[in-house]
């Protein structure tokens, strides 16, 4: 359904670039059918060389594309919506907003149009087609939601949620990449301290975390069930785990996620523009 559509990714920075890479590498979407915009177009020249269309003018991109994937910062959203409004055709365009903290209602109000809007919360795992993307829309937009699901399913897993859960999806799924990367970095630093060179410590830490995640996803088990299989009685794992918990490991992760969730509500302010 979406494969024959033309797609604009508007505001290509870290996330927009990762989505572009993932869609191309999936082999399901042709870069010739994807236009990427950024105000400093020279900074996305590499995508032009990879076969994508690149464009400075958001209005031209919107006129060309059927699907508009928005990946600007929340603080840039009002200005962008004001700019895009004249080009948005409610009978043609589907808007997929990846922008944190901006509701479907706020987008439609700013456009002053009853546009079809889906919210998506992917993560930078899209670049390697391992994103966790949460999607939400309003009741009437089933076909648009299915289109967004099709797009993001080619670059990872998708989950449809209520819009009110979007801030939680941001903290757990989108910020989560950084949280788990920090955990991997900490593990590799531990590995260096006990004798591995940095590159080998990182390989062991990263591949071990990949295996741990796949155990959960493929066995559909709870982490504690898998942990029980590692913790030999009177063994070394339980001693390490208990020391980590005495130092507040789980508590730090939970508190960090709650802090990010709280901030997700504050990022977008109508009065910023
Ligand atoms: N980075 C991530 O892992 C994730 C980010 N998000 C959301 O995606 C959005 C983008 O985040 P990042 O990629 O990290 O930010 P970023 O700052 O790397 O990218 C945003 C890009 O939009 C461009 N831009 C801003 N206004 C523009 C305009 N009017 N026309 C054209 N380009 C414009 C900026 O120059 C920049 O290159 C944010 O709303 C963020 O909350 C959501 C999920 C994950
Ligand atoms: O840090 C941020 O605000 C964005 C939203 C989720 C991931 N990156």
Automatic annotation (TrEMBL):
Protein family: Belongs to the pyrroline-5-carboxylate reductase family.
Protein's pathway: Amino-acid biosynthesis; L-proline biosynthesis; L-proline from L-glutamate 5-semialdehyde: step 1/1
Name by which UniProt lists this protein: Pyrroline-5-carboxylate reductase
Ranges for domain Pyrroline-5-carboxylate reductase dimerisation: 163-264
Domain Pyrroline-5-carboxylate reductase catalytic N-terminal: 6-100
GO cellular component: cytoplasm
Keywords carried by this UniProt record: Amino-acid biosynthesis, Cytoplasm, NADP, Oxidoreductase, Proline biosynthesis
Main location group: cytoplasm
Binding locations of NADP(+): 10-15
Species name: Caldithrix abyssi DSM 13497
GO molecular function: pyrroline-5-carboxylate reductase activity
Catalytic activity: L-proline + NAD(+) = (S)-1-pyrroline-5-carboxylate + NADH + 2 H(+); L-proline + NADP(+) = (S)-1-pyrroline-5-carboxylate + NADPH + 2 H(+)
Function: Catalyzes the reduction of 1-pyrroline-5-carboxylate (PCA) to L-proline.
